[in-house]
Write a structure and sequence with these properties.
The structure is a single chain. This protein is α/β, with parallel strands linked by helices and 239 residues long. 36% of the residues lie in helices and 19% in strands. Strand 1, helix 2 and strand 2 form a beta-alpha-beta unit. Helix 2 packs parallel to helix 9. The structure holds 2-phosphoglycolic acid and magnesium ion. The site of 2-phosphoglycolic acid has 13 residues, from loops. It comes from Aeropyrum camini SY1 = JCM 12091. Catalyzes the dephosphorylation of 2-phosphoglycolate. Its EC number is 3.1.3.18.
């Protein structure tokens, strides 16, 4: 990995499943603090990239001590240098949201803090329900993104890779300088484009297939393992 370490200036980090205890859990793992401290010590710029709403993601970054840009709503909105950047425009119609909810979804509490997306959580975790809902959304010309936690409905033109790409342009960095770590289908495009990529040991099959490195450990413990193996060790609190 030595050759890679020198070329990485940015770490693009997913949140749920990547900084949490494991995929499917919402609780942060203590190793997420070690990840943040290590990246700061290595002077790597971080980009949090998530399906969560912007306020949630920005708040998490503040409390983890991460000062880099934040990409939220699966790439539809970002905060870069204190400026809010809207990458998507508009929002899917309420009528479409209602049609999807009738299939057995409930709205995320964060929807009132979202600008462009709706995040809908399946009441029963049946892949067929997610597929059926995604078909309805795509037929109406909107984008459906499954994160492993919720189905996100957004206008065309979003996606985490689009959001991270916009941020990279604004900070003067290229994809080849990025180490991306993520667990979900909604991270696959970023994992494929980044100079180097990793997935926690319990990531989705899609993410593990694309990532250059799959950690042995799940969640944030796996993310710390990836960062230490790719960027070298360094001062990180024990976790
Ligand atoms: O908000 C979600 O559904 C998942 O969020 P993530 O992109 O940070 O994994
Ligand atoms: Mg995730």
């Amino acid at each position: 990995m030595q050759g890679v370490a020198g070329s990485i200036r940015v770490a693009a980090l997913d949140i749920d499943g990547t900084l949490t205890e494991r995929r499917g859990a919402a609780r942060l793992d203590v190793c997420s603090i070690a990840v943040a401290r290590l990246l700061n010590a290595l002077r790597v710029t971080t980009i949090l990239m998530t399906g969560n709403s912007l306020p949630v993601a920005v708040g998490l970054g503040v409390y983890l001590g991460l000062e880099g840009p934040v990409v939220a709503e699966n790439g539809c909105v970002a905060l870069v240098g204190g400026e809010r950047v809207h990458i998507c425009s508009g929002r899917p119609p309420e009528s479409l949201v209602r049609r999807v909810m009738e299939l057995g979804f409930r709205p995320s509490w964060q929807n009132e803090y979202r600008y462009h997306e709706y995040s809908l959580i399946p009441v029963r975790r049946e892949p067929s329900v997610v597929e059926k809902a995604s078909d309805i959304v795509e037929r109406e010309g909107y984008r459906a993104i499954w994160s492993g936690y919720a189905l996100h409905i957004q206008p065309p033109g979003g996606g985490k890779a689009r959001g991270v790409g916009e941020v990279l342009e604004r900070i003067g960095a290229g994809w080849s300088e990025v180490l991306a770590v993520g667990d979900g289908e909604n991270d696959v495009e970023v994992l494929a484009r980044a100079g180097y990529s990793g997935a926690p040991g319990d990531a989705s099959e899609q993410a593990k297939r694309v990532a250059k490195l799959v950690a042995r450990s799940p969640g944030a413990r796996g993310t710390l393992e990836i960062i230490q193996r790719v960027l070298g060790g360094g001062p990180a609190p024990a976790c």
